[in-house]
Design goal:
With 270 residues, the chain is α/β, with parallel strands linked by helices. It is 37% helix and 13% strand. The protein has eight helices and ten strands. β1, α2 and β2 form a beta-alpha-beta unit. α1 runs parallel beside α2 and α2 runs parallel beside α3. It binds NADP nicotinamide-adenine-dinucleotide phosphate. NADP nicotinamide-adenine-dinucleotide phosphate (NAP) binds next to α2 and β2.
């Protein structure tokens, strides 16, 4: 979507752990905007590899925020709905609601967003959730829609935490939303998630149905994974709406478009 206006850098060009190298690499390029999509987002591994999680989600992004102010560019950073869930409330969260993460990944992402908002008032921090779309640059990593489809092809059941409720978000919706905010000179914290909410099980079932395969989803009462999953982390895009911008698409429509793109099948109803 950005075309030739953007240069994509991976870990080789910009490692969030290499603070001095980051500074000189960015000073040489003199960007107008830096969009940081890197994170230590292995939710379960973050419980034990805490230092790496802090580097990728807190100290690296905090350093980027310092560089943004010193070097004079705008930082765009992504955070997560996993900053919520610990207070047991089951209502959509606004940007003004106090966070309460339930696992170390959420905690490290919260430290990162707080550091950025404190250090670089012109930065844009977008909280997204259950993100899918595009193609990961990491070898062997696929997004959750691709993973569910691969598991279904292999005849495996998709295992999710029973009742985990969130709003799935398509990269295809987030990118234009971020660009619209940048064009409008917006800064600070924004929730940018697909409209509507569902459980992780409903989302997985929708993927499998749209892909035309059997729907084999197991909802686990007790999730054995090392990191606790928050029960309810639905975000409301309140600040986005207050700018008079049209709602992001409903998650069902965006998911249908993405699965159609992956499978070549027409979205149902079209
Ligand atoms: N995926 C979701 O469901 C979800 C939900 C909410 C929020 N988010 C947020 O959205 C953003 C994008 O997530 P994503 O799932 O699209 O990410 P992704 O495709 O997994 O990409 C993350 C990238 O960050 C890289 N990385 C990790 N540590 C790094 C470091 N120290 N220096 C440089 N690069 C490093 C990873 O490289 P390696 O592969 O080499 O580790 C990986 O390529 C993140 O901020 C994430 O926290 C994601």
């Amino acid at each position: 979507m950005l075309g030739r206006r953007a240069v994509g850098w991976g870990r080789e060009q910009l490692d969030l752990a290499a603070l001095a190298a980051m500074e000189s690499a960015l000073a040489a390029v003199q960007p107008a905007v830096v969009i940081n999509t890197a994170a230590f987002n292995y939710v379960d591994l973050a419980e034990t590899r805490r230092q790496e999680a802090l580097t990728g989600n807190f100290t690296g992004p905090a350093h980027l925020a310092r560089l943004a102010t010193v070097q004079g560019w705008t930082l765009v950073h992504f955070s997560t709905d996993y900053v919520y869930g610990g207070d047991g409330l089951e209502r959509p969260r606004l940007e003004s609601d106090p966070p309460a993460p339930v696992n170390f990944y959420g905690y490290s992402k919260l430290l990162g967003e707080e550091a950025i908002l404190r250090t670089a008032p012109g930065a844009l921090v977008a909280r997204v959730a259950h993100l899918y779309g595009g193609a990961s640059q990491s070898s062997g990593r696929v997004n959750l829609v691709q993973r569910f489809m691969a598991q279904a092809r292999a005849g495996e059941a998709i295992r999710v935490t029973r009742g985990q409720t969130l709003n799935p978000t398509s990269v295809q919706d987030v990118v234009p939303a971020v660009l619209a905010l940048l064009d409008g000179g917006a800064a600070g914290l924004f929730h940018l998630t697909g409209e509507g909410e569902c459980t992780a099980g409903e989302f997985a079932a929708a993927v499998l149905r749209l892909a035309g395969g059997p729907v084999n989803v197991t909802e686990l009462e007790r999730d054995p994974r090392p990191a606790l999953r928050p029960r309810y982390t639905v975000l409301e895009n309140r600040r986005w709406a207050e700018l008079g911008l049209p709602p992001l698409p409903a998650w069902q429509a965006s998911l249908a478009a993405y699965v159609a793109q992956l499978t070549g099948r027409k979205p149902s109803g079209s």
